[in-house]
Amino acid sequence: MPSSQQVLEALGGIKDPDLGRDVVSLGMIKELEVSPEGKVSFTFELTTPACPVRDRFKSQAEDAVGGIAGVTGVEVRMTANVRPAFLRPKPSEILPGVKQTIAVASGKGGVGKSTVAVNLAAALSRSGAAVGLLDADIYGPSVPVMTGSRRVPQQVNGRLLPIDAHGMKLMSFGQINPSDEPTIYRGPMVGKAIEAMMVQVDWGILDYLVIDLPPGTGDASLTLAQVVPLTGVAIVCTPQDVATDIAVKALQMFRKLNVTPLGLIENMSWYVCPECGHRHEIFSHGGAEAAAKRLGVPFLGAIPLEEGIREDADSGTPVVISRPESAGAKAFVAIASQVAARTSIQSFRQLPVINVH
Amino acid sequence: MEITWEDGAQSTYSAEQLRWACPCAECRGEGGSPGRLSRVKTLSDAELRVQDVTLVGQYALQIAFESGHATGLYTFSMLRRLGTTDRR
């Protein structure tokens, strides 16, 4: 009968490509049992259900343990437990049950940031994570339409309950103020409104809170970076120079505020004509990847320009849910995995420790 | 106050040192006019006692003194510099 020690030694040869350490020392192997007949079973706990190497880990684990002399069977239970990005210095009232906060920003407007945020959240949710989506675009809230959630949130004990839609928890100024009336706020009011959406909303326990930021490098982004310990920010842009140049500015702003850039996403990257099948690169192509390389940040992926993405956004169901087989949906799912992987890395990073006497 | 940095380095700060380093516009001056710290020679005891330290996002600490002065955001890069040039 093989010993637990032998099993752990064999599994110790599996390295997490993102975290750069072996899966045993990362504490991913749990509930290990070896039966007298040589049957080995254990739980393989990933840091995210959207793990891009999930299947590879499973087969690597089966092969590694199956190769030990005396093993007659291997049962690997794949689970995931998202780890919090930061151990808070004191119990804070800001998002106490939220493990990871991911901001989606752009610099330039109109590049599809909200569409990306909605589909990113939906893809993470479909992978099995508990996901919230906060629409921090006070002036132009698009999340309610894109998710079919134009309902006024309920209030319980003086706190707002997020709207439930497509298995996600949503909160947007478009729900608090759902009419055609515009929100006419000066800067400081925007900050207060965003803070209120975090403090006064009962988000509960979430693996990921995706935050859809308004374009630009102003009040909303600053407030967010000051109030919440953000795990990181994903920057969306279209391939042409006028968009990538401003995306770079947004990224540098977050760097100054010590918010980790998770990477760049290229939206509207190409268009396949349904008539002729020819691939057109309307806004050029590869601009975000080149900018990412220049800045030394990951390139998270490219999303095609598809009528279906727009149609589904207008009808209130993210394309990731309504047409999971489409090229657009697949691109979003792949990007969500990359974002989740980059986010997990942040949980293992060393942070400064502050002591006050 | 003590900070242990990601790379293991340690910095120690006295409340007095932190107060005199306050980076806020009132203390430093703005638009060409000198700030309060360049005008005064001494500070009262209440101004030199730290009451609270809070984290601002991930880039700075907000330090509140017993006098009520709390407008300075001490960025980590500034604190690191301050910690290494410490002569105590």
How do the strands and helices of this protein lay out in sequence?
The complex is a heterodimer of chains A (357) and B (88).
Chain A: H1 4-11, E1 29-34, E2 39-46, H2 54-66, E3 73-80, E4 98-105, H3 113-126, E5 131-135, H4 143-146, E6 155-156, E7 159-160, E8 163-165, E9 168-172, H5 173-176, H6 187-199, E10 206-212, H7 219-227, E11 232-237, H8 241-256, E12 261-266, E13 271-272, E14 279-280, H9 287-295, E15 299-302, H10 307-315, H11 319-322, H12 327-347, E16 353-355
Parallel strand pairs in A: 2-3, 4-10, 4-11, 5-9, 5-10, 11-12, 12-15
Antiparallel strand pairs in A: 1-2, 6-7, 8-9, 13-14
Helix pairs in contact in A: 3-12, 6-7, 8-9
Chain B: E1 2-4, E2 10-12, H1 15-20, H2 25-28, E3 29-30, E4 33-34, H3 36-39, E5 50-56, E6 60-65, E7 73-75, H4 76-84
Antiparallel strand pairs in B: 1-2, 3-4, 5-6, 6-7
Structure in a nutshell:
The complex is a heterodimer of chains A (about 350) and B (about 90). With about 350 residues, chain A is an alpha/beta fold. Chain A has helices at about 5-10, 55-65, 115-125, 145, 175, 185-200, 220-225, 240-255, 285-295, 305-315, 320, 325-345, and strands spanning about 30-35, 40-45, 75-80, 100-105, 130-135, 155, 160, 165, 170, 205-210, 230-235, 260-265, 270, 280, 300, 355.
Write a structural description:
The complex is a heterodimer of chains A (357) and B (88). Chain A has helices at 4-11, 54-66, 113-126, 143-146, 173-176, 187-199, 219-227, 241-256, 287-295, 307-315, 319-322, 327-347; strands at residues 29-34, 39-46, 73-80, 98-105, 131-135, 155-156, 159-160, 163-165, 168-172, 206-212, 232-237, 261-266, 271-272, 279-280, 299-302, 353-355. The longest helix of chain A is centred in the C-terminal third of the chain and has 21 residues, at 327-347. In chain A, the strands form four sheets. Chain A has an eight-stranded mixed sheet with strand order 8-9-5-10-4-11-12-15, with helices on both faces. Chain A has a three-stranded mixed sheet with strand order 1-2-3, covered by helices on one side. A two-stranded antiparallel sheet of chain A has the order 6-7. In chain A, 46% of the residues are buried. With 357 residues, chain A is an alpha/beta fold. Helices cover 35% and strands 22% of the residues of chain A. Chain A folds into two domains: 4-80, GMP Synthetase, Chain A, domain 3; 98-347, Rossmann fold, CATH 3.40.50. Chain A is built from twelve helices and 16 strands. Chain A starts with a helix and ends with a strand. Chain B is an alpha+beta fold. Chain B has a single domain (2-84), classed as NE0471 N-terminal domain-like (2-Layer Sandwich), CATH 3.30.2020.30. Chain B is 26% helix and 30% strand. Chain B is built from four helices and seven strands, in the order E-E-H-H-E-E-H-E-E-E-H. In chain B, strands 5-6-7 form a three-stranded antiparallel sheet. In chain B, strands 1-2 form a two-stranded antiparallel ribbon. Chain B has a two-stranded antiparallel ribbon with strand order 3-4. In chain B, strand 6 and strand 7 form a beta hairpin. The mean pLDDT of chain B is 88. Classes of the chains: A alpha/beta (357), B alpha+beta (88). Chain A binds chain B through residues 89, 225-230, 256-259, 349-357, and chain B through 1-6, 50, 53, 55-59, 61, 76. Strand 16 (353-355) of chain A pairs antiparallel with strand 1 (2-4) of chain B, so a sheet runs across the interface.
